[in-house]
Amino acid sequence: MSNRVEPWQGIMVATALPLREDLSADFEAFAEHCRWLVEQGCDGVAVNGSLGEYQTLSQEERAKVVETAVAAVGGRNVMPGVGAYGSAESRRWAEQARDAGCASVMLLPPNSYRADERTVIDHYREVAKAGLPIVAYNNPYDTKVDLTPALLARLFDEGLIVAVKEFTGDVRRAYEIAELAPGLDVLIGTDDVVLELALAGAKGWVAGFPNSLPASTVALYRAAMAHDLESALPLYRALHPLLRWDAKTEFVQAIKLSMDLTGRYGGPCRPPRLPLTDEHATAVRAATEKVLAEGLR
Q1: Which parts of 73-121 are beta strand (E)?
Q2: What is the rounded end-to-end Cα distance, in angstroms, of the chain?
Q3: In this structure, is the dihedral angle defined by the CA atoms of residues 151, 157, 224 and 216, taken in order, positive or negative?
Q4: Alpha-carbon separation of residue 7 from 101, 111, 257, 261 (angstroms)
Q5: By CB atoms within 10 Å of each CB, which of 22, 123, 237, 282 scores lowest?
């Protein structure tokens, strides 16, 4: 069973958005996918993140993603990404999430340029005015802004954030965050460090591969959180060749292909994302088929 207490804890699946062949969004299929993930044991969905291709959505589509997910699984179980180029726009998306009934949001630092600490703090202050708990998202590879443990502590001490999705893959940060900001929840941000960060005290997982393999990834998470290494390690070793695609540039295409292979609908991506190269598609296919051959779903 999940130890989830707060809305942002537990397994929040960074949901892929089903696109038809003409690249229009299939909201009926998206609603069904959200419901299915929760039925499979996931705690909720983190929508309008990079895996949901939010950068390519119109404002109307982005709002409808949130509304569709809330109608499907309930607002407590929906954590939208509210990243945008401007702080005012991020605040508006947080307000939209609030008005739709969501219980938390996930917020990148300013990502249109390399912001300094003063700018980052002001950005989180602005979005906090919407009144929802904020999960910071630390992805310095894409944003060029590093939410260091010291900076996270400043944001937490001011009451601006409740948690951080930690995407650096550096598991040492979990211990430093716990020292500098006791009470700030660390959420696992990349699928290929789920065991390490669970053992380090993480309170949740913003996860990619439950989109294609919910049963086995939920089992892995539950065992890892229980520090049941006898159960967790075999699962982790079996899944890791696939999980590591979550931290690669082509993670959206890889997860969608894996969904197609497991009987879900992944479908295409919108430009500028291109289909996987033959080499990458072969690798994802082989990793997924190996997991399926071992009876994991």
Answers
A1: 105-107
A2: 18
A3: negative
A4: 12, 25, 29, 31
A5: 22
Contact criterion met (CB below 8 Å) for 160 and 128: yes
Question: What tokens were used for 166?
Answer: 């930690």
Element (H, E) at 204: strand 204-207
Tens-binned pLDDT, residue by residue, of the chain (297 aa):
577 899 999 999 999 999 999 999 999 999 999 999 999 999 999 999 999 999 999 999 999 999 999 999 999 999 999 999 999 999 999 999 999 999 999 999 998 778 999 999 999 999 999 999 999 999 998 888 999 999 999 999 999 999 999 999 999 999 999 999 999 999 999 999 999 999 999 999 999 999 999 999 999 999 999 999 999 999 999 999 999 999 999 999 999 999 999 999 999 999 999 999 999 999 999 999 999 999 999
Q: Token digits for 31?
A: 């609603």
| C-alpha dihedral (34, 37, 41, 44), degrees to nearest 10 | -40
Long-range contacts of 243-246 (CB under 8 A, 24+ apart): 243/191, 243/192, 243/194, 243/209, 244/191, 244/192, 245/284, 245/287, 246/190, 246/191, 246/192, 246/208, 246/209
Long-range (24+ apart) CB contacts under 8 A made by 275-280 are 276/250, 280/250, 280/253, 280/254
Helix (H, G, I), strand (E, B) or coil at 185: strand
258/149 Cα distance (integer angstroms): 34
> CA–CA separation, 125 vs 118, rounded Å?
11
Is residue 247 within 8 Å of residue 169, measured between CB atoms?
yes
Estimate the share of the chain in helix, then strand, then coil, as percent rounded to the nearest 5: 50, 10, 35
- Listed in sequence order, the residues at least 6 apart from 53 whose beta carbon sits closer than 8 Å to its beta carbon are 17, 19, 252, 269, 270, 273
